[in-house]
Amino acid sequence: MLTTEALVKELVEKNGRTRNSLMPVLQGIVQQEHFLSEEALLCVARELDLAAADVYGTASFYTFLDTVPRGKNIIRVCKTITCHMKGKDEIINTLSNALKIKVGETTHDKKFTLLTANCLGWCHKGPVMLINDEVYPELTPQKALEIVEEYAKSTH
To answer: pTM, whole model, 2 decimals?
Structure first.
């Protein structure tokens, strides 16, 4: 596994040293390390010759760029009005009870983090959750629980 500094250098070489490279570099770090550490943000600022505050501002603005450690599997439940009307609260409550965590928390074994998202673009098929990069539409509490149990059993 690469050190954070080596990872940043590799991503900068791949994506370039311009301001436009910032997002792909940050996304690459999250893909590898599952969050953006302070060390990573400072390395990016140095490599791209940007102010650290500028890099942190970008990182903290975007929901999918985590600046705190997250679990191996990140569960995001859509919280739009459409998903709300179709039962997203029951989905969240079921997952929260099963995983014994609240929204924003990570399980003790670091397998799951439970979050909400503003919109996943599946309003016609709500309620919807995203686990890592996989979309799960038309959920019921039972269906959501079964999906998460499969992740718990597997090596996802």
So the answer is: 0.78
